[in-house]
Amino acid sequence: MKVSQFGTPVYLSGAAPFNAATIFSNSLSADTKVILNTGLVLNQPWVTRTNGTVFEGNQSNYANSFVFDGTIAITGGSFAFPVFGSIIATGGGSGQKFKNISFNAPQLQQIAFVNDTDAIFGLQMDNVSFSNNNSVSNINTPAALIKGITESSIGYPGNRNACATSQNLLGPPCIRFTTSSTAVSAGPVSIVGSAQINGFAMQGGSPSYQFDDLPWINSGGNQNSVIGISTVRFIDGLREIGKGPFLRLAGTGTTGSFWFKYLDDDAPNASPGNGWVDSAATPNTSFFDFESVGSSVGGQVAVAGPGNVRFGPGLFLSRGTTGNAFSNYTGFSSSGSTSAEGTALLSYLMAQPNTPTVVLGAHNSCVSNCVAAGTYVYAIVANDISGLRSGISPCSASTTTDGTQTITVSWVPIDGQVTTQRFRGTTCGGVISTDSSGTGVSGTSYTDSGSTFYSVSLLPANGGGASSMGSLGVSAPQFALTNGNFKDVISGTLTANRTQTLPDVTGYVPVTSYVNSAYDNATRANGAIGASWTIQQNGLNIAANQIQGTAAAQSNSGFWNANTFSPVQFSQATVTALNGTADFPGVTVLASGSGASATYYDCVENSTTIFMQRVVNAGTTSLTSTASAGAVGDLLRLEVAPGGSLTCFKNGSVALTATDTQISSGSPGLLISGNVATEKNWSGGNLHPLAQLDTEQDWTKTQHFTQGVAFGTETFTASPRSEQNSFLPGTLTSTWTGATWTVDKAVTITRIQVQAKTAPAGCTTNAVVRLTDGTTPVNVTISAAANDSGAISQNYAAASSLQILVQTAAAGCTTSPADANVTIQYRMQ
Q1: Which SS3 state, helix, strand or coil, does residue 369 take?
Q2: How many angstroms separate the first and last alpha carbons of the chain?
Q3: Chain-centre distance of CA 580, in angstroms?
Q4: Could you tell me if 123 and 146 are in contact, meaning their C-beta atoms sit under 8 angstroms apart?
Q5: Which DSSP state fits 218?
């Protein structure tokens, strides 16, 4: 063979049996061509162990009923097990070719052709056939056994090749593709990488083809060391006799893409409802593409077991009820349409998930059920709404625990991610999951534990969609309506699974459970303003049921954080104290950020002027202002409408307007520049909060009517008014206490009137009636029958003990005042 290396072929003539095993192992047999002129009988196997060898039959007249081009026959004798073997050394090989040869194995348990290696690149078979014992005793021996091939062609396009084996219901596959065992390779191992199977006529076999990883798994190999199938194409074939499925997948490493095109299934033993592809013995989901597959028996199920299936035109197969995902297409022309069935999706694929972040707790932070001491990496797979999965994320950095530390894993979800399959391992290449494929946890984090059992192998991505249409509806991170040369983007940030039902009516849609307004009356204990507020600048406190700034001559601002709001919003509050021109109480809209990034629009006032300002990154720009005397009780309201239209109202009337679009998002809030002025009864939210005003309602929460309430022609204010009466009998010529009044709520005294039955005359000292809490008095001098304090505003806190008394006795009177009735007007704060 030295002479023929890279040159003249070796011709082998004569048909005398070969009684000794022939092994092509010498380096001189590599890259040679052996031409077989006539048929051979091999009583011992022929085995080639070199690369680049071509065995070619000289196209004698030998043929069978389905191999129409001439071949020579290689037939196994009594001791040829197998008849012909291509056995490349561990580590793989390349460039084996067989042409114009029929491999025959008539002995029971004899295999006609074996390719036994952990990896071979380029097994080429042109115009070939395989056959073995077809008796009922042959229950598990295939005609051909092929291991670890890739970039290979079993049959060339245009060939009519053949495979024949026993025709038992539980018989062997005609051609079996599988892995090597652990005795041959330490791994990883492969079944098939990329291969095409062209022009085969199949006679017998149950199934016709089988792909499995059983030699590796049954000899103790790790299932994670089986390399998945890339793609296998079955093209232009015929199944004349078949007792089982056309294709069977078995084992965890058989996931891949399988293409079936221009096949004729005339197996008379096929039955409606049977699976043409049987993937029930694999937990994995492969892709199956069918086009132009005909049969004399209709109604067979395309895939029995896990599978994503695409149907092209010209099929006899039915979708079935196996829970698989299916899609149909009728064409890709401009007039064609695309449709889907079952759980198939039309989708935009997910991106790769983000790398998870791992936080390791301190020593002894885990008390029980802790992760065992060791070094681990973590990864995730994103699952969509239908349970289809993405590829795996990059692995986290290695984390080493001493067995007493908590391990918290978190991630930022990608578009379409509904649940998360969790993986852990000691190396990135060896991660396994605690969740079944297509399932996982909701949310964005979990705490690992000693009882979290990781045992599920990683499977390839199977079409997880970031956006999709399917049997569960339309899913997407956001929706965009487009018309009128504009777009309307509908989106939201979800923190839990939600269910919302649209009412069966025409009109606008109020979304239930969406809180789009907020209120704070400041009625609570003194201290920080509270967790519902984000402080932007300095501080805001509750002081005597008012809101007050903490820093003098500086901005004290904050915004409401308990709800989210539309960028079209309002904010309003009542001014309860001013500080001349030194302090500036007011309200803000579109507020965000804190410290040096504090940003908002504001409307504020002092005792002489009202201002509208823009604050961006803590820098202030005046938008407009006008002279307007501030007063206690002023209601300031700032609104921002579409297009940046800003309006500041004072006591219901427009005070200032401006247009500015520099700030486009944020929340309503308030601002008090200085630490003396105060505000109360703040509210804010969407500019027009949702309400149903034409239906009867039961309110289970306190309602706040800051502008008052009107029943018909009668108006009631937000702070109801009342009066307190006390009678002082006899002459007012001595000091004494007529009544004690303890107020349960804070009140503001607005007027005190004293009416004496006997008016005083000629007094050198007039009597004085006083209302006091012991600290802050209000006095009324009794100088006539009717005596009035005039309009006043004196605040008393809740639980104050108020006394009504004769503070100063009348003296030197010709007629002393007597029998006085005291009327005190007040309003609730």
Answers
A1: coil
A2: 111
A3: 54
A4: yes
A5: H
